[in-house]
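Researcher: Good morning. I'm working through a list of sequences from a screen, and I'd like to move beyond sequence-only analysis. For each chain I'm collecting a predicted structure so we can compare shapes side by side. This is the next one on the list. No need for commentary yet; just the structure.
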Amino acid sequence: MIFSSVVCAENINIYTWEDYFSDEVIAEFEQKTGHKVTLTYYDSEPDRDALLLSEKAKNFNIVLIDSLMLGINSKKQPMYRFSEKSVPTILNHNPKWRQACGDVGVPYAKGTIGIAYRESVSKTPITSWTQFFKPPIEHQNRVLMIKDNLDTAAIALIANNLPPFSENKDDLKVAFDTLKQQEPYLLGYQYLLTHTAIHQEKSQASLAMVYGGDIATITKNSGQDDWKYVVPDEGTLFWVDCLAIPFEKNATQATLSFLNYINEPQVAIRVVEEILFSTTNDAAVALGSESYLSDPDLFISPEIQARSSFYQPISNESMLLRQRMNNLLKDK
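Model: Good morning. Structure tokens for this chain:
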């Protein structure tokens, strides 16, 4: 493993979704290097993107961001560009996922968007986005929806058998109508991971839009062991999350040393098997346990892949329209 020679301890500030890093692995890095790693959590992508384009981004050495928004934001501001010299363990990642993050990001995780539901509440299995937008009576007023500039409209479009990144205004009107029809059934607009961290065993949610790999943390947060993840019949979206450095000056030796460390195969496999997400690190996957490699929530079947889509860029006009749609969606 490569560690920086510590002259004085440095702070490494990371802006990320909750439960994406192992506390144990971070503690080991801090002990070996003397550096301090601080995690700050966001629970919505619009909030993250707004911060990334503000002066506050200078406070963070590393930001976890999806590949599509990384590509968009990197055109709006200069970001650190990685190389095999600065982070040698980047070579452990599959070239397909490295290409998704470009030279401004180190790939970290991949997966799908789907539905989480509590089996003890459901009278029948949840298999369709239609059931999410017009839920069975037992889930009504117990639904959580993520409000995101891309994903929210995209899954409403998928539910109507429309292209998830359509810029057609008639298509987006159909999506908006679907989202508005869902409102009476909502517990709120919130990420289930965040909701269960706050409410724990008192959580009343039973149906939610989530990301593949979330179930383990949701179960840990809530103590409710009957959560199930499903990719709906209509299909889904594939996502890739990248680790980016917002500004050149934020690429300290300590920061690069940390990125190199967490991409060592022996370290990376510990992280993903603890937190349970699908890694882009092929060298780590080669060390995976049988239970990890056989997890259908993490390793996507060919059938699901065939009916799903990768993220695609959309115009600024369409993005603004989707933002306006979200602004018109109101919590109870």
